[in-house]
Amino acid sequence: MRKALRTFIPVAAYFLAAGYFTLFMPDLLYAFHEGGIGYCEGCHDMHSQKQGRSLRTDDDGNPGSAVFMLKGSDPSSTCLTCHAEEGAFYNVFSSDGSQYTPGGDFYWLKKTFTSIVNGKVYISDSHSHGHNIVAGDYGLMEDRISSSAPGGTYASSAMGCISCHNPHGTITGNAANSRPISGSGSYGKPAPQGTITGNYRLLGGQGYNGGSMSNGVSFAYPAPVAVANALNWTETDSNHPAYGSGMSEWCANCHNDMLAAGRKHPAGSNARLSPAVITNYNSYKKTGDSRGMQAISYLSLVPFELGTTDTSLLNPSSSAGPDTSGKASVMCLTCHRAHASAFPLIGRWDFSATFISDSHPGSGDAGVSGKDVLNSYYGRDMAAHFGLYQRSLCNKCHVQD
User: Alpha-carbon distance 316 to 308, whole Å?
Assistant: First the structure.
């Protein structure tokens, strides 16, 4: 009996402990966005007094709006409560530009660089480095250069994380879904029977209102299709989002005119890569070297869209360039990052540099600190990797160098 009792106690303790961790410490077992969104108190203070703050009011002056019972002083500050956590793979706002996420590091919104080239002074203003989210708790303020989205009317004063990401994870607008969301659609996992997966990166779907301060914006295009690595957000040539379709159209929800015909670089599902461009992309390795092979030609600094809605065909570990099916296309994120970069116009590289090795920020530029130069290209020593005379990465597709 004593022996049986001794056996029972540790077994019982094991199950009690397992129950405790499951019920009371869910973060250890499930990612915060495992169900597409997090639990309510992850973002909201239900009674608003827990942290010594008074009830906030909504846009109509009504007290206690759930939108404003937030753990941060504004929506983006609330998001950054987790997404600015040093050392976390999901950090998108580091203290030194070291987060090499596909969207970029909001750190660059705090950095202005000044350089002198051929006797002329050039300023790379912090507000030109990204989408200027308003996150007062983190010192991030409204864009002082553009009052609205380039090519559109979305007000800069309303710009924040929830302008793009739907914090409640619905698929279309704010209406309830016909089936429960079982998880984010970011990672290509099939949804359990009777459920659906949410949008890629919780991006607002067709009909989304663009956030609580967007003044009547309604998204015309659905969220894009893409697949990423769930636990490793460091972008490399063999670990990167596999973009399927719809990215440029989704960007056009706010940047309406950017897809219009005219003197703009083509982008979108109809901007298919021509056979010549596909050949260029797959053979181009660097200036003066076009001996590349399709199987290993992918360059994360110049991504492309595969032209599919089938997530089973999207492999975020692939190093292959576009195939000859003719479905691949150029998209907004081929040249730009979604959050921020070290370069003007949220460029993936310095568009104004004749030689990539002469990019700014560069050594000796005013404003440069720490590893800014190395971090600007995601840890790549560009001169060592491509050579001192590597020209613009536009040549990955166009080969004019």
Answer: 14
Is the pTM of the predicted complex or chain greater than 0.85?
A: yes
Beta carbons within 10 angstroms of residue 157's beta carbon:
15
Read off the pLDDT of residues 118-161 as tens digits, 9 standing for 90 and up: 899 999 999 999 999 999 999 999 999 999 999 999 999 999 99
297: tokens are 């030609």
Largest CA distance in the chain: 91
* Cα angle 345, 347, 353; round to 5: 100
Side-chain-side CA neighbours of 355 within 13 Å: the count stands at 11
In the numeric block, which tokens belong to residue 223? 């969220």
Dist. CA 268–CA 352, nearest whole Å: 24
Token duo for residue 64: 């206690």
Please say whether the beta carbons of 303 and 335 come within 8 A: no
One-letter amino acid of 20:
Y
DSSP 240: S
